[in-house]
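Protocol step 4 of 6: structure prediction from sequence.
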Amino acid sequence: MLSDIEEQIKSSIELREMILDKAYLEAVEIAANVMIETYKHDGKILFCGNGGSAADAQHLAAELVGRFKKERRALPAIALHVNTSALTAIANDYSYSEVFVRQLEAFGTEGDVLVGITTSGKSENVLKALAKAKDKDLKTIALVGMDVSRVAPLCDVVLSVPSCDTPRVQEVHMLWGHIICGLVEEALFHGQ
């Protein structure tokens, strides 16, 4: 069992060393700047994802609304899956692939950002939401694993983890999300 634990930790470390490449660092910086500009223009950040990615979306929205490291005003951020009544009604009345699209119709406005999180890059409801966001002139950011083929045409920024191992991909998504939250806070509340 100890060797399995050690192997998983080493796997995580190896992946994190891979994302120290300049291209990954620059993509994270671009995503942070998109969010910073949105907040500077009184926009909001919307998140969507399924399963573990939904948990990550909710976590990152909470970091922005509550606080990450600084005492500061709340920043508008919404994880679109947290209203279970809306989610289940939309899934029942339309289809599960529409659960985020319908909410974007209600809450997304031009200048906002949609962050779609999908480790596989194939989550139909996230892909539809990204497409809807583009139609509504929202900026779009994807946090994804290796397969970017379906998300890339729908996104302004793609943060792609070079792995197909879902737990490792999710670990990097949260690392990048936390880095972005820190960059947003520093840019907007420098000196506080």
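Step 5 (inspection) to follow. The chain has a mean pLDDT of 97.
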